[in-house]
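FAQ

Q: What does a record look like?
A: Structure on top, sequence underneath. For example:
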């Protein structure tokens, strides 16, 4: 089976919606498929940091992915939902963000008619919409609540979910990531959703699962640290402090972090990933953003060194390159890497007076 068919959650979207998506995408200047080169380590570096370029890149890849493939994926349009809002200037509206969000709302509203192909779609959509609500309106949208409530109905007795496993680490390959992604979403869901009666039993099972199941790698432990900022009983203060120290120990001399150093994943040909690979956008952005959520000050010298790396390593197109952990083809993890790079940079900006 083609990997895109097995690992991309193909969804039945109405033709009217798709037409609207394409219209909004064209309005953002992304209609020309040759406008951006493929994700490549050979792309020249930007002369200077451009948040505007990063926003254009994210609109381009998330808009095209959603309108052409009509599916959700952990490496492109799900992280887009929680990264793109932080780039909006006061009063600004992104047509692409509105349409991508609308695509997933449309799915939730029609799940009883066009059922999710996998439980993964329910979990990832619920979590991403909840994070988007937290980073935008700070109010729980009715369809987000509906998605979260449905998520508990497909939860296993052990507290996790049957996550889609298609050997695309670090996200689409094990049940633990689905569980910790759900935990981040539930913890961030506005209006104290995690304390509502409808969430109590499922959240108790999820918490128990995460307590008794050690993270299989550093990547997942970093996500657990993020989840622990908003959910009790995942990591106590002593465990969080130790985790932060251990994460800093993985920082490279240039100030960044490297994705292959966060796990022991093998490539599709069976060869190991290089633990000494160069720093990349995904690992550096994820680590810096999560450390900020965990209370590490933006002024911390180690974070400032990482911010300097991010500012120096943006590519001319606006993206931050990250090499795929499996095959040297599309490097879609670059899309998620760019999402976390901008989240990290925004999280480290000086507070406006």
């Amino acid at each position: 089976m083609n990997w895109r068919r097995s690992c991309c959650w193909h969804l039945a979207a109405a033709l009217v919606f798709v037409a609207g998506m394409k219209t909004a995408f064209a309005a953002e200047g992304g209609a020309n498929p040759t406008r951006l080169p493929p994700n490549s380590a050979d792309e020249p570096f930007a002369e200077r940091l451009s948040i505007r370029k990063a926003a254009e890149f994210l609109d381009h890849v998330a808009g095209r992915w959603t309108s052409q493939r009509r599916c959700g994926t952990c490496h492109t349009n799900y992280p887009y939902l929680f990264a793109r809002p932080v780039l909006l200037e006061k009063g600004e509206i992104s047509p692409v963000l509105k349409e991508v969000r609308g695509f997933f709302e449309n799915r939730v509203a029609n799940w009883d008619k066009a059922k999710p192909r996998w439980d993964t779609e329910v979990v990832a959509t619920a979590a991403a919409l909840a994070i988007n609500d937290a980073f935008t309106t700070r109010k729980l949208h009715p369809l987000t609540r509906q998605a979260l409530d449905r998520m508990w109905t497909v939860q296993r007795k052990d507290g996790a979910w049957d996550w889609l496993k298609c050997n695309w680490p670090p996200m689409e390959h094990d049940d633990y990531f689905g569980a910790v992604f759900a935990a981040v979403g539930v913890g961030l869901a506005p209006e104290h959703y995690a304390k509502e009666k409808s969430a109590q039993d499922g959240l108790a099972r999820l918490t128990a699962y995460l307590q008794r199941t050690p993270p299989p790698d550093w990547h997942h432990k970093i996500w657990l640290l993020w989840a622990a900022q908003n959910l009790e009983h995942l990591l106590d203060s002593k465990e969080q402090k130790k985790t932060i120290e251990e994460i800093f120990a993985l920082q490279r001399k240039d100030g960044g972090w490297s994705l292959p150093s966060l796990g022991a994943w093998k490539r599709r040909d069976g060869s190991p990933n290089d633990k000494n690979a160069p720093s990349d956008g995904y690992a550096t952005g994820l680590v810096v953003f999560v450390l900020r959520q965990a209370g590490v000050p933006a002024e911390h010298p180690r974070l400032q060194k990482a911010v300097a790396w991010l500012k120096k390593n943006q590519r001319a197109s606006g993206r931050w390159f990250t090499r795929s952990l499996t095959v040297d083809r599309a490097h879609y993890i670059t899309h998620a890497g760019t999402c976390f790079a901008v989240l990290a940079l925004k999280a480290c900006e000086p507070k406006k007076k």
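Q: Is there anything notable about this one?
A: The chain has one domain: 17-30+46-347.
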